[in-house]
User: Fold this.
Amino acid sequence: MSSSPIASDELSQQVIAKICALADGNCAKSDDVMVKNISRTDYATAAQATIQIGWRSDASTTTGQHHPNGSRHCASFADLDALLKQDCNAVAGSAATAEKLANTLRPDAANRFRTLNSSFKVEDLPFAYHHWETCNKCRGNGQHACEHYRCLFGLVPCSVCHGDGKRPCANCSGGIIYYTVQVRDHAGNFYSRSESKMCGQCSGTGRIWGCYTCNSSGKVNCPECHGTSKVACKPCDATGWFTHRYWTWLTGAVSRCWLFAKDAPERFKRTLEAMPIMEFPGLQATVTQAAVSSASGVCTIRLDCSVPHVAASMTCLDASMSIDAVGTKTAIPLMPHFLDTLLKKIEHLCLEKSPSPHAVIKKFHDARVTVDVLHSVGKKGKKFKPEDISALYSGAVSTSCLTTLHRAADKAYDGVARSEVNRTWLFAAPIALGVAGLSALYDKDGWLTPYYAPYEDWGLAIMLLPLIWLSAGALGQKAVQALMGNKAARRPRQGVWPVLAFLMAALLHGLLLLSPYDAYGLGLPFSPQPSVTGGAQAPMGYLLPVTSIPSASMAGQNISTEQSSAPLLPQPVPPDAQLPGFPSQWKIQSALKQLNFYHGPVDGGKATPEMKASLEAYLESVPDYLTRYVKLPFDDIVAMGLNNQVRLILPANRTLAAPMTNLARANLNVGDLSRLEAAAERAHTHPGQEQTWQSADGHRSGSVIMSQSHGSACGTFALRVEIGGAMESAGPLEGCRQHGQWSVR
Assistant:
């Protein structure tokens, strides 16, 4: 470091040391700082604080008419306001008040110059005023009309009879009496059924004459005014008046400024005005004289100071700067941004079209400013504030330069980790896509429940994506830490990889789930047809596939079936435009007739008593949750039973035909079940021989075969049922004789 001339005073050396410390390590060394010219001058300057004396007032309100101690009564607020302003302005504008304030400031004028707030309280005034005001709600009476929304002359309608003098009937509920009867079904079993009838005491109205609360008058006293039509006024506490009391005090408004000599240079004035004025007198500038003066309503503090000013002209490599420092601490409020010039090479690298992320990170280690910027990028969960780093270097680097450097460092931080992130996603994303696709192709019963199997497998694919995201972030962070060390605490951004992988997995899973292909069909269109085995009765509400059950075969022994027999399926429903009558009514009639609940015409006409009775009988066989908790149209509830989407409660449920569909079980009457029971008994007696049965009208038939016997009361069965030329079979199933009847175990 060399220059000419060089000042020998201590303040000048401090300025030079500050500039050297800022330049050192920021693409330059302290020896690169060259001082062209530096000088120190002490200027006589005055700091002045002007205190303008004023006043303020405040008020409080109480209910009633009062005479506060020491308070003057005024007839109205206008009189009070005029009297208050007259008294306070006279005291605040008097010379005696200003001189009294000046006497309190003179003993420690320099300290009071610095510590006085911009607005402060001087002292309380002995003036107090009050006036009375009538309550607007009650107009001074203390009472007002009752405001209950139903009060009329102090009376309101009775809450029991609602004004008609009738009380609720205690014998019924809304005019209807509900009771329970025991009914025998077509299988001979008894069950409870709720019925209702009209109440004879109230003739179905639910109310009878004679209200005990209002003596049948329909009116009772108002709960607020108690029949008087008047209530006490709450705002004024039933006094009718308010007392408003005002009190006052003196205030001081402080304004500070510098008073410069005529020969003071402009650069000194500009530099000193950039500094807080309260930090100088007595702290960074010697106070030579302190004076406090007063006038009418104004008090002034003047501090004559000697302020040192160091002016310097320096260079550092390509940067030239003009320095102005003031005060004994050599503060430089208008610091030139010379570090921007020293960091030009790094900034130019950042502004290139496609800089190498590794080169940018390595280049940022060449300067202390860029190292701090790089560390701010690596911080976790903290927002970058260029003002903080600029203040750390006394404003020698601009916020715009720091913003440019931070943007490049942030991009390079993620760029260094991008190779590891891309490698991780390219390796793991196909695995997630494969799981999403296979979960759709192998769409069968889930691990936990049979209801949401596709969603459980899809959840497995979704769980893989966060694991991949965490792994990619950890590997990318490790790559950045190889260049930055432990300062790289933030996980790098991964771009569009997570969103793209999620969308692709969701799209692949959805398309395969909706397609007619699955893994079991080896790429061919396939409708899953799960066989119903012994004991696999569907739970209530389980959505079963609308397909026929395949023919049963056991250990090489097949039940003989005719090749011309069609599977037992619900009849297809034509479009609504082709249906006669009401479409919803036609669908209900058709479904109930197929399920053997309804035997009338299927014409879509209005509901007949026979139709209503059939629908009630069907609803008795539907699970309770469909009629109690789920609000569905009747045609949807009937269609769910026909399509085997819910399991109906039928007499065949307690026989070997329990695993069959609703359509098959509903068409087996008591006689058919007896013949099936007899055939099962014969099959148990003669294992391996097919035992047939047929209904009396010849419309229903079937056969039973037993392949294995497990003791005297159990065995493995397969059975076939043919109804109207359509056939359905089930098995193998485990059956046992319990209480003299064969049923599925």
Q: What stands out?
A: Residues 34 and 315 are 5 Å apart (CA to CA). Residues 1-6, 444-456, 520-564 have pLDDT under 50 and may be disordered. The two ends are 102 Å apart (CA to CA).
